Amino acid sequence: MTAPLHDAESALDFAQDELADVFGNIAAFWGFTKTQGRIYGLLFLCEAPMSHGDIQRRLSISAGSTSMTLSSLVQWGVLRRDGRLYVAETDMWKVITGVFRRRERDQIDTAIVRVDRIAAALSSLETPSKASAFALTRVRQLSEFFSLGRRFIDAFISRGPVRDLLTNIAARAATFGTRTTTSATLEPDAPLGH
Amino acid sequence: MTAPLHDAESALDFAQDELADVFGNIAAFWGFTKTQGRIYGLLFLCEAPMSHGDIQRRLSISAGSTSMTLSSLVQWGVLRRDGRLYVAETDMWKVITGVFRRRERDQIDTAIVRVDRIAAALSSLETPSKASAFALTRVRQLSEFFSLGRRFIDAFISRGPVRDLLTNIAARAATFGTRTTTSATLEPDAPLGH
DNA sequence: AGTTCACTTCAAAATGAAATGAACCTTGCG
DNA sequence: CGCAAGGTTCATTTCATTTTGAAGTGAACT
Question: I want to staple A173 with a disulfide (CB 3.0 to 4.6 A). Which of A168, B112, B155, B156 is the partner?
Answer without folding.
Answer: B155
